[in-house]
Task: structure prediction
Amino acid sequence: MVLTRPLIAALSAAFLLGGCSFSNDVLWPSLTGEEPAGATVQYEIPPSPAEQSAQPTLLPTESPAPEVAGFEQIAAGEGVATGTFVGQKVAEMRAELQRLRTTIASHNAELQQVRSATIQNVERYHGTVAAINARLQIGTTPGNPALVDQWNQAQEQLDRINGDIGRLSSLTTKVSGASSMAAYLLESARAAYGLAGAVEEDHRQLAMLEDEVNKTVVMIKRLLIEFSEDVNRQTTYMSRERSNLLALSLGIKSGQLFGASLANRAFAPAAPIEGAAAGAGSRPLVIIRFDRPDVEYEQALYTAVTRALERRPDATFELVAVAPSTGTAGEVALGASMAKRDAEAVLRSLANMGLPPDRVTLSATTSATAQTNEVHIYVR
Result:
């Protein structure tokens, strides 16, 4: 068979195309879903040390709860003995600093204990008060013995909270003494720079000691701030709850719920009284003058309020605490405070008489003609 030039060219092209197709099948995997030709190569990956451990460490699924912010004790660094007198002083001051920090850490731990005890006492107190209010809300007999017992329990729980405040005050005194000790150490460290016979290592350790004492002073100040805030907050709370507990006793006595203490209600400002009968724009129903101790006003007050309610059953009343405006600024302020207390006493008397507290408003003012504290009662 004779091969012509065109036939030879065609056969060569066919051979080359076939070679290209073969190379393509070898270098690129098939996309048809079938496994490529050739043997499958497998590689073994050895387990990690954590996987081989009998007790592997597991990552937490939730972030840990943040720690309560408080005093962090920092241990005083250890110095190198230099054999000099100054070096000996540095060692003594470092030991004093370490003892001081241990004491402060102990005070801080006691602060956390007092806070925890206060939380428990407050929870018990409010639980008892809530039980009394719930019983009064649905109605009960006047002077119910069960409620009286619960009230006594609430009083004891409030006394425990007051005891916690006493512990805080005592701790504040102790921390204040530690603050004085820290100030003394700081002055001693600074004064030691002027002692003769020191080497360079002594001064380096003095600088380190001074820095550590400064850190301790900052932590003591922070702790004193926490003590002060706690004492002020708890003292205000105790004053308010004492008044609320007194109002609760009146509710138990009458067998009905009065609500929060009337002593905690705000006094609205009123215009100053220029004349004895000017009042708040009308003639007062009753004027009670507190010019002596133990003023007996309840019978006359009851009679006047009863007659007012007979004429106007839906009447409301305004109690105005009137204080003299003459005297020094301190005397006027003191008189205004005492006049408000007198008005609160009258308000409690009206509550004991059965007048709902929501039908009484409070205000306070001064008078240029008043010689003593007065309480004016107006019908609205």
Remarks:
- Confidence is low (pLDDT under 50) at residues 13-41, 56-77, 275-280.
